[in-house]
Design goal:
The complex is a heterodimer of chains A (469) and B (355). With 469 residues, chain A is of the alpha/beta class. Chain A folds into two domains: 319 residues, no CATH class; 115 residues, Spore Coat Polysaccharide Biosynthesis Protein SpsA, Chain A. Chain A has 15 helices and twelve strands. The N and C termini of chain A lie far apart (59 Å). The model of chain A has no long low-confidence stretch (mean pLDDT 90). Helices cover 72% and strands 0% of the residues of chain B. In chain B, helix 13 packs parallel to helix 15. Chain B is extended and about 75 Å long. Chains A and B meet through helix 1, helix 13 and helix 14 of A and helix 1, helix 6, helix 10, helix 18 and helix 20 of B.
Chain lengths: 469, 355
């Protein structure tokens, strides 16, 4: 039998190497993101969105908005989407069996009347009760269906759409005026190979909002949403931009993403038996396209901004993070065939292992690390210098990654005009590693547990509505 | 590797991260300074803009009196301000005044500044210069932009084409046509858009190109549709009927839809029987724009029998635009075929609601 001391010694070594590997990968991604952002900003200088707006080749688009009990925000969100700059688009709101006043609000706000809509019988979805059109807004279609979940609602929306691309948007987000033009730009530049594009999601809490527009980006006053601002910047600017650079993106946020209808339908649309339907769709498309040996790209653009309200209470955050972790693991498990298979290229050797080891199992490994340190200390096996050095390294590394993401934000977009906001973000990036990081780690561990218990369901989200952010 | 060897790695790692953190902190400080600089320079540039505004106003009012001298950049940042003001003017003025603004850009040295940048070793600088020359509608830049159309990098060719499309100098047409054939797939779209912006002026060259180059036919057909050239109608109709490539036939049907002339009805009716489904869908869509009741029987046939959903949708849409077609759709409102029934109901509803 191995003595406990040697076992701890061995675990600590392993964890150190794991820690170095994970941070090296994050730094690599940030470097790739910086390269991608630089190239993107240069391209922007000689190609205005005005040209896209006027180009007859700009493809028509359906914006799909699944809505379930969104009565408080739905009218504002739909109006915001209807006012976007795009030459030819239709908004399809899918009321997914809401038990509140969502449909009634839509009916009165947009003067809806029942109107038949012929749908392509493509992807299986729950029964449609009725479809409605607006007497005042010609490009609005509302579909009322039985409750089947977000993925099911999106599938109904895909069936109802008549455009080559669709944009899946959460019903509780605010899109910037040119968001559709920006997100469709890669498609227009390369329609043969771009099959999906994701846009950045930013935190709307604290922002000055009016008429479904973010007038002035501001930071939230409370600490919990503030930490999430830093977290979102790190995930989107520092992570997904880098993955996009190497065509290794495994996830496009369900809150805002454009997909080719042809390829989304070819993989059977969104899966209804997972809570990570957004990642699931991207992985399924990767798998199919690689198998068919199609030359394709799945792109992330850091410019088209989608603002969303993030959880302001611990209870809601817990529900969200557990769901995300469960969805991630469900998707990774379903697509485990990708791992280390040469056919899947960068996905097999970088993206998938990254998500599996650092995102999927990361909370458990990191948790094990904390337990091991505590145990080693309790048994008097922890070298004080070693412990301090490791702790300093962990804190500095977390700080470094956050600061790098802020640096990318400052370099590329500068969305927060106030000096005070930048100072708060920097401070937050420094202290986020003590407390908040461990909290999310615990929530993600619970998510892993939920996955192992095969728990289903979405949990809940409490929204204040954009007027009260 | 054992634990004993680790502290050294840790030491190095901690040192490295410290160094990197200091670096990042320093860069953040630098960016803060950049913010400050931006705020100060923005205020200064606004003042300079106000300084040039009377001269721009005089230009719009077509006054004389040393405009070139009044607008000539003197201080730091002036060139960019005056250039931006002239570019904004192009969106507002037309005819001779446009020409005058363009000449003024050349007289005060703005064009020369960008022409110099066209030989920069940095490709992004060259691309930006081309874009600015296009925005300034500088005819002097046409030879340089034509030369850029021969560039090795497809991206630069695209920017050059876009600039030439803005300048609209007829001497650029042959070069653009050549570039159209040299750019693969969607990269040719900006070139096609540039050619389309020439309007009728480009039609003879485009027709000749369509005649001689088989590979470009679909793309050229699309441009002719965008131009809405009546003179291209016979050629498009002939290709819709005869071309071997189904993509070309579909593009011709789409072009005929944009031209929307009654003479296109007979070939489009034939297009409804094309073996390729996209051609049938495009033909049905185009017939919906013709407002010709004689197309109703064939459209109804397509609505009832076609195997492709999109052909049926387009046929139903087309029928709903005509009184005779709506009468036919009324008959199918209770049809046993669910697709037929729902399409008839939907299109009648939309027709009743008006545009």
């Amino acid at each position: 039998m191995i003595p406990l001391g040697s076992f701890l010694h061995w675990i600590n070594s392993l964890l150190l190497w794991y820690f170095l590997a994970v941070n090296a990968c994050y730094l690599l991604l940030i470097l790739l993101s910086a390269i991608e952002l630089r190239a993107y900003l240069k391209r922007l200088r000689y190609g205005s969105y005005d040209l896209l707006f006027r180009d007859p080749r700009t493809p028509s688009l359906s914006v799909l908005m699944p809505a379930h009990n969104e009565a408080r925000t739905i009218a504002t969100s739909v109006r915001g989407v209807l006012n976007l700059n795009y030459p030819n688009f239709e908004v399809i709101v899918v009321n997914d069996g809401s038990s509140d006043e969502t449909l009634e609000v839509l009916k009165s706000e947009f003067r809806l009347v029942e109107a038949p809509r012929s749908m392509e019988a493509g992807i299986p979805a729950s029964r449609i009760r009725a479809s409605y059109r607006s007497l005042t807004v010609p490009n609005l279609l509302v579909i009322d269906k039985e409750n089947g979940g977000k993925a099911d609602a999106l599938n109904a929306g895909i069936n109802a759409s008549r455009t080559p691309y669709f944009c899946a948007v959460d019903a509780d987000v605010i899109l910037e005026e040119d968001a559709l033009l920006r997100v469709m730009r890669p498609v227009l530049e390369d329609p043969e190979s771009v099959v999906a594009v994701g846009g950045i999601v930013r935190v709307a809490n604290g922002c000055e909002v009016a008429h479904a527009r973010v007038l002035t980006p501001r930071l939230p006053a409370r600490l919990l949403p503030l930490f999430q601002v830093v977290e979102y910047l790190r995930a989107f600017l520092g992570g997904r931009t880098g993955f996009s650079r190497i065509n290794g993106l495994l996830i496009i946020s369900g809150a805002f993403g454009v997909f080719s209808k042809k390829w989304a339908a070819a993989v059977g649309g969104y899966r209804t038996d997972t809570v990570g339907e957004d990642m699931e769709l991207v992985c399924a498309m990767h798998e199919l396209l690689r198998e068919m040996r199609v030359d394709y790209r799945i792109v992330f653009i850091a410019d088209p901004v989608c603002w969303t309200e993030v959880p302001a209470s611990l209870r809601v955050l817990s529900s969200q993070r557990r769901r995300w972790q469960r969805g991630l693991l469900e998707t990774l498990w379903r697509h485990r065939g990708m791992l280390l298979k040469p056919r899947y290229g960068i996905l097999a050797f970088f993206s998938y292992p990254f998500f599996l080891l650092f995102e999927g199992l990361g909370p458990l490994i990191e948790g094990l690390g904390y337990a091991s340190v505590v145990l080693s200390w309790a048994l008097g096996r922890l070298d004080a210098a070693y412990g301090m050095a490791f702790l300093t390294l962990a804190l500095l590394m977390g700080m470094l990654l956050n600061l790098c993401s802020l640096l990318l934000e400052e370099y590329a977009f500068r969305r927060y005009p106030r000096w005070l906001d930048i100072a708060r973000l920097v401070a937050c990036g420094v202290i986020e590693n003590v407390g908040y990081h461990q909290l999310t780690l615990w929530l993600r561990c619970l998510g892993v547990w939920d996955f192992l218990c095969k728990r289903k369901g979405w949990g809940f989200m409490v929204r204040k509505g954009f007027g009260r952010l | 590797m054992g634990l004993a060897g680790l502290p050294l790695i840790l030491k190095w790692a901690v040192l490295g991260v410290w160094a990197l953190s200091l670096l990042v902190g320093g860069l953040l400080g630098l960016l803060a300074l950049t913010r400050l600089w931006r705020a100060v320079s923005h205020a200064y540039l606004l003042r300079r803009r106000a300084f040039f505004f009377p001269a721009i106003e005089a230009l719009v009012m077509e006054e004389d009196g040393g405009l070139a001298e009044r607008l000539r950049p003197g201080r730091w940042g002036d060139a960019a301000i005056v250039e931006e003001m002239l570019v904004e003017l192009f969106a507002m003025v037309e005819g001779p005044l446009r020409e005058r603004v363009s000449r003024l850009g050349e007289e005060i040295g703005l064009v020369h500044r960008h022409l110099k940048r066209l030989v920069s070793p940095r490709s992004h600088a060259r691309a930006e210069a081309m874009e600015r020359l296009g925005l300034l509608r500088s005819r002097r830049a046409v030879p340089s932009l034509l030369a850029a159309l021969e560039s090795e990098a497809p991206g630069l060719r695209v920017v050059a084409a876009r600039a030439l499309g803005r300048i609209q100098d007829p001497t650029a047409l042959p070069g653009l046509l050549k570039a159209l054939s040299g750019l693969p797939g969607s990269l040719g779209n900006p070139v096609a858009q540039a050619l389309g912006s020439f309007g009728e002026k480009a039609v003879p060259s485009l027709l000749a190109e369509m005649e001689s180059r088989e590979t470009l036919r679909a793309r050229v057909a699309m441009i002719l549709g965008e131009v809405r050239s009546l003179s291209a109608l016979p050629a498009l109709a002939a290709l819709l009927a005869q071309d071997r490539d189904p993509q070309v036939r579909a593009a011709c049907a789409a072009a005929l839809r944009q031209i929307a002339h009654p003479d296109a009805v007979p070939p489009l009716l034939e297009g409804l029987r094309d073996p390729f489904r996209e051609v049938r869908a495009q033909s049905a869509w185009a017939l919906g724009r013709m407002d010709d009741p004689s197309a109703c029987p064939r459209l109804e046939e397509a609505l009832l029998k076609d195997s492709y959903w999109w052909v049926r949708v387009r046929a139903a849409e087309a029928l709903a635009r005509l009184a005779e077609g709506r009468a036919l759709l009324e008959r199918h409102k209770e049809a046993p075929d669910p697709i037929l029934r729902s399409l008839a109901r939907e299109m009648l509803f939309l027709a009743g609601r008006g545009p």
